[in-house]
Amino acid sequence: MNEVVATLLEILKYTVPSGIVFATAYFLMQKFFEEQRSLELIKAKTAQPSKSGSATITLRLQAYERLILLLERIEPSQMVPRIHKPGISGVMMARELQKTVRDEYEHNLTQQIYVSAQAWNKVIESRNAINQVIDLAANKVGENGTGVQFSTAMFEILATAGVSPTAEGIETLRNEARQLL
Questions:
Q1: 118 to each of 9, 27, 113, 123, 168, how far by Cα in Å?
Q2: 76 close to 154: Cβ distance less than 8 angstroms
Q3: CB crowding 134-154: b at 16 or more within 10 Å, else e
């Protein structure tokens, strides 16, 4: 029995220190890897917003650009020369202008998610104001009017108003875009 105890003590003399060293190394390595993981998470969190933030800013700026382009394209002084065809009737001219306004608006409808509610409302107000000018000019000229008469009536209405229907919307969009820069 003495020999068994001596052998057991001899085995314990080597295994206990080895076990202590193993346990110490295991816990130290575990703590080291946890700290490294925490550092990587922090790096990922701090790096990600700048990448996604700059991508979001880029998307928002593109939305402001597209909406300003929309308002410039539906501005009557830009739209009438583009739409006018020789011999077109006033009624057809009005329909073509309204179709152009509608198409441009629908093409840029998704941009509203990138701009403020105030800016989007200004875009809608501009679109509505242009449609009102088109309707007023169409009523003024009547069904027998020509495209030239319609255009003249439309520009008279705009001159009387003294303000472009898109000016306020464009200015709002520009101011918001400047705030992003």
A1: 83, 57, 12, 9, 11
A2: yes
A3: bebbbebbeeebbbebbbbbb
Q: In the predicted model, what is the mean pLDDT of residues 2-16?
A: 84
Bridge partners for 146 per DSSP: 89
What is the torsion angle, in degrees rounded to the nearest 10, for the CA atoms of residue 28, residue 32, residue 38 and residue 44?
A: -160
CA distance 165 to 130: 6
Q: Within 13 Å and on the Cβ side, how many CA atoms surround 167?
A: 7
Percent of the chain with pLDDT over 90: 55
Question: Which among 169, 175, 172 has a CA at the least distance from the CA of 70?
Answer: 169
Q: H or E segment at 72?
A: helix 2-74
Q: What is the pLDDT of residue 98?
A: 96
The model's pTM: 0.68
Round to whole Å and give the CA distance between 75 and 80.
8
Look up residue 146 and give its DSSP letter: B
